[in-house]
Amino acid sequence: MKSDRNGLLIGAVLAMSGFWSCNTSSGNDKVMPTMALVVPEGYELVWADEFSVDGKPNSEYWNYEEGFVRNEEAQWYSPDNVFIEEGLLIFEAQRERYSNPNYNPLSENWRFRREFIDYTSASIKTNGKFTFQYGILEVRARVDVRKGSWPAIWTLGEDRRWPLCGEIDVMEFYRVNDEPSILANAAWSVDQSWQPKWDSEVLPLQHFLEGNPSWAEEFHVWRMEWTEDHIRLYLDDELLNEIAVADTEHPEDGFHPFRQPHYILLNLAIGANGGDPSATEFPLRYEVDYVRVFQKEQ
Question: How confident is the model at residue 36 (pLDDT cuts 50, 70, 90)?
Answer without folding.
Answer: confident
